[in-house]
Design goal:
322 residues, alpha/beta, 7-stranded mixed β-sheet, 6-stranded mixed β-sheet, 12 helices, 13 strands, 38% helix, binds guanosine-5'-monophosphate, binds manganese (II) ion
């Protein structure tokens, strides 16, 4: 853990602000949005002018969440008292909002990425927490804030999605204790499960089948790589976010220790990597300027898909043979 502020102090700063702007990372996932939504809702309940600032639409699969205070309007608050980045701790994780972030009178960072360094005026970064939502839960307790079913649901989405629904090695007794406390708040557990995991569009399933078709297995069956490009999306009428779960399908194959998935996006490619049991993908991602966690990491590469695949395959092969 690296921090220069306690959760009590961070909570005190937030409660005494008049306006707070919250910054989840780009391509926000369940944890980034859930953590941001929960914090925003509590601040609003306390009469604070709070918004969650995004640089894209809320992903379709997360629209069931409490995203009422998510906006792309960069002028929603004039000179915010506090800008807080959530589930990220570097400018390149919110590239289209850096100027607004820096316009905050005070800059706070709450994150759980092991590859993160100190960032902002005040930072609280704990790589041992499975999800940023767990830190937000503890922050809300430190603030003495009421966690109702709405706030609880957002936190539960964050914890569930970042632990692979309590499957991954980051899941601890603490994770289950917090989840249990959230269930006591009367959240709709099954509603959340269906929305997150049992609600795949036909286009998504068809896209995944194409992705599996194009998959390459290498390094003696221990690694898998595949990709998605715009032609594939067009063919099945899918959106890029429909490729979000494909990386799990690759990792879940018997014998695979490391999986990589490459998404063509504008003039760059976004790489997602997963390790199953003993591997560490954060070590591979940092070699390409990215980062993340031991079992889930990523990076952005400015090159064509086939070039990225070749480089990634080489790095993974080196790693597995070491
Ligand atoms: P995903 O593959 O789901 O996009 O990301 C997996 C994990 O790696 C997430 O925790 C995410 O925050 C982190 N991650 C993904 N891409 C990057 C990146 O370019 N830089 C850093 N520092 N972390 C990343
Ligand atoms: Mn997270």
């Amino acid at each position: 853990m690296i921090n220069n502020v306690s959760l009590e102090k961070a909570g005190h700063l937030l409660q005494n602000a008049e306006s707070v702007l919250i910054f989840p990372h780009i391509n926000p996932d369940g944890d980034a949005l859930g953590s941001s939504a929960a914090l925003c809702r509590v601040l609003r309940n306390n009469g604070i002018n709070a918004w969650v600032l995004l640089e894209e639409d809320v992903p379709e699969y997360l629209k069931f969440m409490d995203t009422e205070f998510c906006t792309q309007d960069q002028s929603c608050i004039d000179e915010p008292d506090i800008c807080v980045c959530v589930d990220c701790s570097e400018e390149k994780r919110f590239p289209g909002r850096v100027d607004i972030f820096n316009s905050g009178r005070l800059k706070l960072c709450i994150d759980h990425h092991v590859t993160s360094g100190s960032f902002g005026d005040y930072y609280y970064i704990d790589g041992d927490e499975a999800a940023t939502a767990q830190i937000i839960y503890k922050l809300l307790l430190a603030m003495g804030a009421e966690i109702d079913s709405c706030v609880g649901s957002s936190l539960y989405v964050g914890i569930s999605t970042d632990t692979g629904n309590f499957q991954y090695s980051n899941t601890t007794s603490d994770t289950h204790i917090i989840a249990a406390e959230l269930l006591k708040k009367g959240i709709d557990h099954m509603g959340i499960m269906v929305a997150l995991y049992q609600n795949r569009s036909l286009a998504r399933v068809r896209l995944e089948s194409m992705i599996v078709d194009r998959m390459e297995i290498f390094s003696e069956g221990r690694a898998a790589v595949s990709y998605v490009d715009s032609a594939m999306l067009e063919k099945v009428g899918a959106m890029l976010e429909d490729a979000e779960t494909a990386i799990d399908t690759l990792r879940d194959i018997e014998g695979i220790e490391i999986a990589a998935f490459i998404k063509e996006k504008d003039d760059a490619v976004k790489v997602s990597m997963r390790a199953k049991y003993w591997g560490r993908v954060d070590e591979i991602a940092v070699r390409f300027g990215g980062g993340g966690h031991a079992k889930a990491a990523g990076c952005t590469m400015h090159m064509a898909v086939d070039e990225a695949i070749a480089l990634i395959k080489k790095e993974i092969t080196n790693y597995l043979e070491k």
